[in-house]
Amino acid sequence: TLSLLYKLKKLNASRLAPVQGATPTHNDRIGLIRGDITSLQVGAIVNAANNSLLGGGGVDGAIHRAAGPSLLAECRTLNGCQTGSSKITSAYSLPCKKVIHTVGPIYDDIRPDNSERALKGCYTSSLNLAVKNGLKTIAFSGISTGIYGYPSLDAAMVACETVKNFLDRDKTIDKVVFVTFEEKDVRAYNQVLPRFFPPN
Ligand code: AR6
Questions:
Q1: Fewest 10 Å CB contacts: which of 28, 103, 117, 169?
Q2: At 188, which helix (H) or strand (E)?
Q3: What is the spatial distance between Cα 179 and Cα 25, in angstroms, rounded to a whole number?
Q4: Nearest residue (CA) to ligand 1, atom 12
Q5: CA-to-CA distance for 198 and 200, rounded, in angstroms?
Q6: What is the pLDDT of residues 70-129, one digit of tens each?
Q7: Confidence (pTM)
Q8: Which whole number is the average pLDDT over 27-35?
Q9: What is the structure's pLDDT at 118?
Q10: Is the minimum distance from the CB of 158 to ligand 1 under 6 angstroms?
């Protein structure tokens, strides 16, 4: 019976998931995947950028490489972006429709409240841009959890809480996918997700 339940659950998850290019799990409105965000055929992928919006390492570098040089050309016209805010561009060679560039905080362990406020701003401003642009599915990279040093568990709490508050009020977004890359972030999301979103 257990294995049958498991198979049914998997079948159900794949039927409900509107995201191509990965197998998101969790429930019908929330996905968690470990993998390459550049391969997702979603409405928008969210890039962990810096204030210049002119590219960098980590996921930012991967997104610019996969999108091609036209992305950088468009980013040059945007005059940067403030920490905790987001800007949207075309996706060029990427399979998603748009790229939302958000600037996470460099984690400040003396003033963690400031970091938290900025990180919340990243999630809220990105979701607002998705809604404004009529995008139904959005995939977030682990903003600030790489080079910017935000502790994974704290960042996952902020991500889940902010997304939950948003989705409770918004009815236009079909699915939010959290994309993890490193094991530490997979563990953090597996711990935090069920506290905010009931699994299917
Ligand atoms: N593909 C997918 N995810 C990745 C990749 C990749 N190739 N590399 C890292 N991650 P980070 P930040 C995950 O460092 O901490 C850039 O230089 C990583 O495991 O990319 O916000 C920008 O230009 C982590 O979960 O971004 C900024 O200067 C998440 O992506 C600065 O880094 C974010 O890690 C931003 O730092």
A1: 169
A2: helix 183-196
A3: 11
A4: 144
A5: 7
A6: 999 999 999 999 999 999 999 999 999 999 999 999 999 999 999 999 999 999 999 999
A7: 0.90
A8: 93
A9: 98
A10: no
Residue nearest to atom 6 of ligand 1 (CA): 59
Atom of ligand 1 nearest to the CA of 149: 15
The residue ranking higher by pLDDT, 4 or 34, is 34
Assess contact for 117 and 108: CB atoms under 8 A: no
ipTM over 0.95: yes
Residues in the chain: 200
Cβ of 50 less than 6 Å from ligand 1: yes
Give the distance (Å) from ligand 1 centre to CA of residue 15. 31
* CA 160 to mean position of chain CA atoms: 11
Residue in 141, 182, 189 to alter for ligand 1 test, most ligand atoms within 8 A of Cβ:
141
Cα 140 to ligand 1 centre (Å): 11
H helix or E strand, kind and range, residue 86? strand 86-90
190 contact partners, CB below 8 Å, separation of at least 6 = 32
CA of 12 to the centre of ligand 1 (A): 32
Interval 136-165 mean pLDDT: 98
Of the candidates 26, 72, 64, which has an alpha carbon nearest to the alpha carbon of residue 45? 64
| Distance between CA atoms of residues 99 and 46, nearest Å | 6
Written as six digits, the tokens of 159 are 């991500």
Residue type, 41: Q
Please tell me the distance between residue 63's alpha carbon and the centre of ligand 1 in angstroms. 10
